[in-house]
Amino acid sequence: MDDFSAWVGRSETREDIATQAPLRGLAALLDHDAVPDILPPLGHWLYFLPDARQSAIGEDGHPRRDGAGLLPPVPLPRRMWAGSRIEFLAPIKVGAALTCVTTVDAIKPKRGASGDLLFVTLRHDIAANGVPAIREEQDIVFREPAPASPAPQAPTPVAPAEPADVVRSVSPDPVLLFRYSALTFNAHRIHYDRDYARDVEGYAGLVVHGPLIATLLMDHALRSAPDLAPRHFAFRAEAPLIDGAPFDLCLTRDDEGVRLWARDAAGRPAMRAGLA
Question: What is the 3-state secondary structure (H, E, C) of the chain?
Fold first, then answer.
């Protein structure tokens, strides 16, 4: 694989305003009536949205990686948001002037069961009215093309589902996925183009966005314990969730904080998260 170490340390700065309209959309998506005047945890994902010109968009719906932007020209075609580690440093009020400095922190090639992988870690430092408010490390993984004819796999034995204190079921449908894509201006075709998701990227159907699952887990925690004031949140995707297949949001509290996970209908974890 090519050496992309020259991209480590590159950065870009973007500006935005913490307007209320995206928060109204998020509240509607999560089935809430009230619209907060302070960004809810993970609400920062509704700002600094991608703005590449239509002529710069690649086949997958993401901007083409030509090396001119922040990301290196990675030849591996499939991309996913693998996880994040987030610190909430200060509240962000609606109307605040936002600045985000994004830096390429690390680029690490790996070899997995599905072939070559490239992990790119981005650090996002967000300030509101000049005050540091959010620090996030985001892991993006690039993967090889899906095999043309995936080899049939024997069913994987499923262990008993991990017990949880609070469980809520979600039935993801194309409308939910479309609304979240619209909220975040996410044009990745795996979330709305069933033929592309199945025939090109090898998924069984439309893929539920990783940050949507993380947002649902955060919302599950706040519904279960409205007194929570998160300082740290981390999540890691373990397996894709597909539209039309209900999944559970699970929560358990212990001495270290709140453990969260999303599990599919077979009880297998698809994402794990921690909140403190």
Answer: CCCCHHHCCCEEEEEEECCCHHHHHHHHHCCCCCCCCECCCCHHHHCCCCCCCHHHECCCCCECCCCCCCCCCCCCCEEEEEEEEEEECCCCECCCEEEEEEEEEEEEEEEECCEEEEEEEEEEEEEECCEEEEEEEEEEEEECCCCCCCCCCCCCCCCCCCCCCEEEEECCCHHHHHHHHHHHCCCCHHHCCHHHHHHCCCCCCCECCHHHHHHHHHHHHHHHCCCCCCCEEEEEECCCCECCCCEEEEEEEECCEEEEEEECCCCCEEEEEEEC
